[in-house]
Design a protein that fits this description.
By secondary structure, this protein is an all-alpha fold. The chain has helices at residues 14-17, 25-46, 62-84, 87-122, 141-148, 161-167, 183-198, 201-204, 207-224, 252-270, 279-295, 298-316, 331-347, 355-382; strands at residues 242-244, 248-250. The protein has one domain (14-382). Strands 1-2 form a two-stranded antiparallel sheet. The longest helix is centred in the N-terminal third of the chain and has 36 residues, at 87-122. 41% of the residues are buried.
């Protein structure tokens, strides 16, 4: 008989319960990606405040929370990958996971969506080539690709189309795909893990990672100490934007806050053998998370609570939820296409049917693009992960041994690696 769900102080450690694919990470990632679309719907479709902004007193939006959640989960899975793979193989895996889907999204935007919308607005394609901008790139489709191919997103518009539509009052944002800005910070976190891996810190000096996380946390505390109700990264405008080759403009406050979220995931992974999976702690994390959102200091106490809460949910949600996204991960496609779909629908006037229809159509078209991205681009690319790796030697066939005398050591079960590897 199946045992009923019951709260326990500890079910074991994260290392014991979060090592394979038997978890609800797929569901959580889909939920986080959908939350970004939900949050953007109000501002992109109707120029209203994003959801969650009022409840949190201006600290974060629902979309911001989803991004922080993504970085926590990425910190766990990418650290696991960095600790077990050689440096070159690790970088190759990371590139295959993020770049093919991103590049196809850029191509689709530049050569399908932009021309179609340009024709819709202007009635011809005469000006689609654009003019040279301050960065030295023409702002047409080719310039868009040249400026953004390295996850830089230095051009958000193509041929001034979205800027023009915004000036005419048809749109509330002047970007084709504003959500792509977070990917440069994701890549920087990958570089950080690579440095920790190649120096041996991940395997032999994990306490050093605590110092990195402590540095991020201290920077947050330093900014929070001057505010009675700390608003977080979006309120820290006094830090000077830095230009990084290929990456473009990097805002230090976002690097600090997203870096903190990622490092929390890294710590969870490195100390997974010492962190219990506790139902009372999970409930307490939920209470702290919600309370800090509403009453303040979310980044000091709520973000660490969110990190634990996500892992607890991934392990403790009922078994049927673990099937969602277990084989097909559409979350990345939903994230990189959602904003583009929302802007397209807003520009052609489909917001006139109301929020429910706008959000429903957005989710429908975004999911179609995400499914195509996964099956036609992302999954085929991931099949190249072992390219160039020599095949393990084939074990010689052994003679059949009666089960009654076969040693127990020969009977084992293999677990699959995490999807982030």
């Amino acid at each position: 008989m199946r045992r009923a769900f019951a709260l326990r102080w500890s079910h074991g450690s994260i290392a014991q319960l979060f090592s394979g694919r038997d978890n609800s990470l797929g569901l959580l990632r889909l939920g986080l990606a959908t939350a970004v679309i939900f949050s953007h719907a109000s501002i992109l479709g109707y120029g209203a405040k994003e959801y969650g902004l009022e409840f949190s007193g201006g600290q974060v939006t629902v979309g911001n929370l989803a991004v922080y959640g993504f970085f926590v989960l990425s910190g766990i899975l990418v650290t696991r990958s960095g600790a077990r793979l050689p440096l070159g193989r690790f970088l190759w895996h990371r590139a295959l996971r993020i770049l093919p889907g991103f590049w196809v999204c850029l191509l689709f935007t530049a050569f399908v969506v932009a021309p179609a919308l340009y024709w819709y607005v202007h009635g011809d394609l005469a000006g689609l080539g654009g003019t040279k901008g301050p960065l030295g790139f023409a702002d047409g489709p080719l310039g868009y690709l040249r400026a953004d191919w390295a996850v830089a997103t230095r051009h958000y518009d193509i041929a001034g189309l979205m800027t023009y539509a915004r000036s005419e009052g048809w749109l509330h944002n002047g970007a084709f795909n504003g959500s792509l800005w977070t990917l440069r910070y994701e890549v920087l976190c990958y570089v950080g893990v690579a440095v920790l891996a190649v120096t041996g810190i991940l395997k032999r000096a994990r306490r050093a990672v605590l110092l990195v996380a402590a540095l991020f946390y201290w920077l947050v505390v330093r900014q929070a100490s001057a505010e009675p109700f700390w608003g977080g990264a979006s309120h820290a405008r006094y830090l000077e934007v830095q230009q990084i080759p290929l990456m473009g403009a990097v805002t230090p406050q976002w690097l600090i806050y997203l870096g903190l979220a990622f490092s929390l995931g890294t710590i969870i992974e490195l100390y997974r053998d010492r962190i219990p999976v506790s139902d009372p702690l999970g409930v307490a994390a939920l209470a702290v998370f919600v309370g800090s959102l509403h009453y303040g200091w979310f980044f000091l106490v709520g973000l660490p609570a969110l990190a634990y809460l996500l892992v607890w949910l991934a392990i403790r949600l009922p078994r049927p939820f673990r099937r969602v996204g277990a084989r097909h991960d559409y979350s990345y496609g939903i994230y990189i296409y959602g904003f583009l779909v929302q802007q397209t629908l807003a520009l052609i006037g489909w917001t006139r049917w109301g929020m429910a229809a706008y959000l429903g159509l957005t989710l429908l078209f975004t999911l179609l693009l995400a499914v195509a991205s996964w099956h036609l681009v992302e999954r085929p690319a991931l099949r190249l992960k072992d390219l160039g790796r020599s095949a393990p030697p084939t074990a010689p066939a052994r003679r059949s041994v009666p089960r009654s005398v076969e040693p127990d050591a020969l009977v084992s079960a293999a677990s699959s690696p995490a999807s982030g590897s």
